[in-house]
Structure formats: C-alpha cells, structure tokens
Design a protein that fits this description.
This protein is mainly α. The protein is built from 7 helices and 6 strands. The strands form 3 sheets. Strands 1-2 form a two-stranded antiparallel ribbon. It has a two-stranded antiparallel ribbon with strand order 3-4. Strands 5-6 form a two-stranded antiparallel sheet.
Length: 134
C-alpha cells in the first residue's frame, strides 16, 4: 500500500495487521512447499535453489499441483522440476533415502552407501541392458 510510517516498528505492526496474507507469501516457497520463518531466508533460498528461468517464472503464475510432472516416491507430493524434487528429497526424506532399495527386475537388494546410485545404474546397465537408467 502507499502508507508511510515514521518508524520501522510502526510499519511492521501495520504490515502484520493489515497485510497478513502478503507477509505469508513473502516467506512461503510455493515450489517447494516450505514456509520459512523469515522472508530473508526465503529470498536466500529462492536465489540459491530456484535459478532456472522455468522456476523463476513459476513464482508469478498459478500452478495446479496435480499437473506437475515430478512426483516424490516417498510422500507423493508433486514438483515442477527434477531440481525441486531433489531439494525436497534431500531436506525432507533423509531417513527414507537411507533405506535398502531393490531392483525392480530381479529383486537384488542394495544396501545404503554413498555410491549406491552408481552401483544400481551399473547393475541396470550390465544385468538388464538399460543404458539410460537413472
């Protein structure tokens, strides 16, 4: 709004009372579904994580969650890009990612390790002839 205030305290009081919905939008990431305590934390997150043109433009449009292409295998939440899904998995599903995984073709079990993804990719390539498995 166009109102002016003599002190930052008065401005903050006005913003908290009259523009509550705006304040919420300044600290909520609608791409990651994360509510930050401070708007400065959200701005830092946005600048560090959401760097592609597609993600930056997505902040200014309304998106239907059900139409988003990338689905989390742990909680079924949907995301606009692989980058956002990766961020979500790192910060929301640390324990789930450490669980054993099994091959969907032969049921071989892969215990958690730092190189497990590469080991599984090699397994899929060598045992099941899947060259582009990710």
């Amino acid at each position: 709004c166009d109102l002016k205030f003599l002190s930052e305290q008065s401005l903050n009081f006005h913003t908290n009372c009259r523009h509550k919905e705006l304040k919420e939008n300044l600290s909520y990431c609608k791409l990651c579904y994360v509510d930050f305590k401070l708007s400065s934390q959200f701005r830092a997150h946005k600048g560090k994580i959401h760097t592609t043109r597609e993600e930056i433009e997505a902040f200014s449009v309304k998106m239907e969650k059900s139409s988003l292409p990338y689905k989390c295998k742990f909680c079924k939440e949907r995301f606009l890009t692989k980058n956002i899904l990766r961020y979500h998995n790192i910060y929301n599903h640390k324990e789930e990612r450490r669980q054993d995984m099994s091959c969907e073709f032969c049921n071989k079990v892969f215990k958690w390790s730092h190189g497990r993804k590469r080991v599984m990719e090699n397994h899929m390539r060598n045992q099941h002839n899947l060259e582009d498995y990710k």
